[in-house]
């Protein structure tokens, strides 16, 4: 919000004028009002392994993160380049593996990867699209210095919070939106439905029927599954609600079974089809992979896309982007040490106190070590894990992440943030202007995940 000389950055100018006229106690009451709204609406997430507090509200901060039009356009251009490269990479590794033959990515990272699905080899999804919905985590370390922290190409979550945060802000502070030309995010469900409809399978012979597949009410993101199905005007189903009939996946309705053309699945690969993956899965639809490969249904995101957000693959993304686009990556990676490499492992073990170490398949802030915040005993225990399974980890420096203001008891205070813009890929690339800003509410903390004590805030992209 502030420049080094304490002058207000231009995007925050109008907000700052408004804020200086507000009463801190009244704004704090608005925070409680927002929490009440979230509680009434049912906007919660589940914390696995904590039965005594399984359902929680994600803390919401009412100070928006504001981005200028030029900042966003720079970021959006880099995101579009990256998602196009990701889809090209996925097509290649399940077909000719030209990038492996060119020596740009080691074969062992593909063939030996648990996210790689041999069942997808030689198969082209409808429309040639693998990652229909992507959530790219972005951090900022200086003026217009954006870095990609990770690519969420499996089943990215959080878009419902982006939409509800905006709705809450518009209800509480309509005058702010009258004073600032903010680009909308609430059109996301419309764009999502349109994007999914554009990749209907060959078997579709009319307006495509779309459904959302959820693991059920105990899933941590169930609220979002139900929210998106409702907002798109499509059915929310569980695996038990559908089966193979006449070579199609059909769902049970009040008028009998009806074929599904496009399935937005929020079930992980291994649970998607007990006939193809985990035989004991109760969450998926038996036989769906055979129907999929025969052109009877589109699955979004496609099975096997998880390899694209593997953190070891991530470390090769600059090479991947240039290989498929012919141009240098506009968005850079965070510098990354691959612990599978002997020299890198030695460096990481010698510098654990300064590094962040992550599992290559980890998510949600779990399975990681933040070296500067860890005790000597914690670092020593983690070093043993690294020595035992070095291929399971990558390491990165602790970055000087940018901060944005939050509302504290004393007024505005800086906290570290990241940004998850949401991208839709089908007949074209659609990037929602803004995204979900996640904020580390604890002073000095770098961990923004809601399951680890982080919160969220509305993200504004200004029109001018």
Automatic annotation (TrEMBL):
Residues 64-440 form the Circularly permuted ATP-grasp type domain. It comes from the Bacteria. InterPro entries: ATP-dep_Glu-Cys_Ligase-2, CP_ATPgrasp_2, UCP005522. PANTHER family: BLR5612 PROTEIN, SLL1039 PROTEIN. This is Circularly permuted ATP-grasp type 2 domain-containing protein.
């Amino acid at each position: 919000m502030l420049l080094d000389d304490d002058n207000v950055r231009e995007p925050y100018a109008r907000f700052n004028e408004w804020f200086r006229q507000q009463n801190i106690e009244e704004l704090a009451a608005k925070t409680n009002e927002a929490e009440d709204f979230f509680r009434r609406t049912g906007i919660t997430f589940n914390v696995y392994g904590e039965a005594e507090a399984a359902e929680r509200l994600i803390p919401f901060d009412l100070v928006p993160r504001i981005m200028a039009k030029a900042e966003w356009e720079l970021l959006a251009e880099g995101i579009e380049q990256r998602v196009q490269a990701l889809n090209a990479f996925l097509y290649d590794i399940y077909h000719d593996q030209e990038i492996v033959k060119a020596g740009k990515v080691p074969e062992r990272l593909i063939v030996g990867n648990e996210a790689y699905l041999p069942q997808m080899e030689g198969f082209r999804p409808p429309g040639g699209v693998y990652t229909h919905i992507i959530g790219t985590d972005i951090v900022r370390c200086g003026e217009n210095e954006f870095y990609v922290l990770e690519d969420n190409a499996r089943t990215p979550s959080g878009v419902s919070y982006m939409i509800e945060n905006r709705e809450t802000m518009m209800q509480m502070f309509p005058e702010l939106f009258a004073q600032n030309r903010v680009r909308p995010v609430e059109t996301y469900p419309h764009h999502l439905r349109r994007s999914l409809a554009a990749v209907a399978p060959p078997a579709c012979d009319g307006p495509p029927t779309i459904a959302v597949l959820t693991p059920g009410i105990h899933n941590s993101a169930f609220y979002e599954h139900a929210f998106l199905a409702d907002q798109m005007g499509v059915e929310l189903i569980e695996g038990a609600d559908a089966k193979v009939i006449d070579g199609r996946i059909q769902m049970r309705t009040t008028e009998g079974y009806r074929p599904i053309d496009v399935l937005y699945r929020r079930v992980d690969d291994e649970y998607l089809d007990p006939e193809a993956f985990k035989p004991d899965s109760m969450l998926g639809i038996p036989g769906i992979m055979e129907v999929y490969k025969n052109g009877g249904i589109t699955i979004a995101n496609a099975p096997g896309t998880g390899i694209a957000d593997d953190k070891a693959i991530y470390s090769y993304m600059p090479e991947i982007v240039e290989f498929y686009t012919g141009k240098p990556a506009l968005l850079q990676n965070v510098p990354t040490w691959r612990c599978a490499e002997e020299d890198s492992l030695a460096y990481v073990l010698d510098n654990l106190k300064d590094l962040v170490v992550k599992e290559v398949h980890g998510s949600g802030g779990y399975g990681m070590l933040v070296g500067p915040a860890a005790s000597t005993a914690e670092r020593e225990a983690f070093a043993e894990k690294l020595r035992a399974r070095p291929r399971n980890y990558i390491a990165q420096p602790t970055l000087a992440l940018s901060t944005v203001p939050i509302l504290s008891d004393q007024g505005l205070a800086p906290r570290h943030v990241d940004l998850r813009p949401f991208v839709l890929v089908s007949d074209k690339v659609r990037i929602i202007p803004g995204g979900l800003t996640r904020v580390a509410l604890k002073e000095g903390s770098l961990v923004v995940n809601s399951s680890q004590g982080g919160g969220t805030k509305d993200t504004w992209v200004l029109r001018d």
